[in-house]
Write a sequence for this structure.
């Protein structure tokens, strides 16, 4: 059985800790955080500490802290010869200043307090030493059914893609809700449409699923809608419309 | 039992025709299209015609043709005293040049050939005559569980919201897929994230669900990601990020 220590007490760290506890096939021997209060909740289940000199022995040390702090934190570790990984989507593996290193990146949007089914969360792994890849793969498959080997350059692009399909999409939902609220229309009217858009992307390429005034280059509707918006929302409407129009011109699709 | 005639043979008209056939509580007495070939498929089930002078008698006439054609088409109808409605999200009710008029707008993205569950599709209705509202409401509840009374001004805004949460979101998915394809990362890695984003919007306000570098105003990640993009995609990234940053400044949320 693989043994693991989690270094971190934040949002991602907590979700990961919970997932490892749930798996009977991983030995979570310790959780570290410099704020002991954050990890008090694990006290009954495993060893907790806020002292880096008291880290126990384990197969894998998982740093799950804020992106900016990873490099400096890794320098403070006294874990010669041990496999140390981070969980960040946007930090290069080489930011870790340890001998054996890797990445263990669960690609999901974690909301504090909201439980997730880890089995369905893709985990992207990478290691500096070839022989460690199998260790990390075994560990990942204990908590998720979807494990992908992704190098740092790919992961950087994947993170960019994630920001676009998740964070940006959510902001479009915010704008949609704001428009509904302002006009006394219940936002729930739009929910089935949102669901259908997501259902579609699972079965067909989004390039083929595109519909709407921009796809048809319907200038009358486009101009009218632009006139109904102001500020950033107007600019967002304009540039996405332009991008859709040009995409379908470029691909020679029927307008 | 309410009787209906559908005027149109395109995509939305076909989905609507199918939904009415499915309901045992609506009498679909005729389907009209100027291209008879489009509606040949209904010949065994109801009367079909391409001749406006041969329209039968019905409680409601539903015009389901392209937005630009609705006004002119309504002028050609000889339906004095009859309730005539259109199915468009973006055309004002008054575009109909008939005595009694209304709107019967199913808010969904219809893909040709892809079946939909009409019961879950919100139908937004509106009438010029108060007494017709009940007729339209009864008709709508026969094929959908979600019927909303929405006037033309609200519907215009709702359509704008729909373009943003559906068409624009789908384009963001396209961009995400393009980034994955270019970097040999399977797009399916992003699918669970897309699903989670949609699941969230059903249970919490998108304003509260926002995560990511723009929400945190994490300039290092933002600048790096901007540098990885070109053309329209770069501009889309910049303006949506700016909009998120300003939204959370404005709302005084923690960054």
């Amino acid at each position: 059985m693989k043994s693991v220590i989690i270094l971190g007490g934040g949002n991602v760290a907590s979700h990961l800790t919970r997932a490892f506890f749930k798996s009977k096939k991983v030995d979570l021997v310790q959780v570290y955080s410099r704020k002991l209060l954050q990890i008090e909740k694990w006290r009954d289940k495993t060893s907790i500490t806020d002292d880096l000199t008291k880290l126990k022995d384990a197969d894998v040390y998982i740093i799950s802290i804020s992106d900016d702090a990873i490099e400096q934190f890794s320098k403070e570790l006294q874990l010669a010869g041990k496999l140390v990984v981070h969980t960040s989507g946007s930090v290069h593996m080489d930011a870790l200043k340890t001998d054996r290193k890797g990445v263990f990146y669960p690609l999901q949007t974690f909301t504090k307090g909201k439980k997730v089914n880890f089995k369905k969360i893709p985990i992207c792994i990478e290691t500096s030493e070839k022989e460690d890849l199998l260790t990390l793969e075994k560990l990942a498959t204990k908590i998720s059914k979807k494990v992908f080997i992704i190098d740092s350059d790919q992961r950087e692009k994947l993170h960019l893609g994630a920001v676009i399909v998740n964070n940006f999409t959510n902001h479009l939902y915010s704008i949609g809700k704001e428009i509904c609220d302002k006009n006394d229309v219940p936002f729930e009217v739009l929910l089935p449409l949102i669901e259908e858009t997501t259902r579609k992307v699972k079965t067909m390429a989004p390039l083929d699923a595109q519909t709407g005034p921009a796809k048809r280059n319907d200038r009358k509707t486009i101009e009218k809608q632009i006139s109904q918006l102001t500020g950033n929302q107007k600019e967002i409407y304009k540039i996405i419309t332009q991008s859709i129009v040009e995409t379908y011109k470029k691909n020679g699709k029927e307008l």
Q: What stands out?
A: Residues 152-182 of chain B form the longest helix (31 residues). The radius of gyration of chain B is 23 Å.
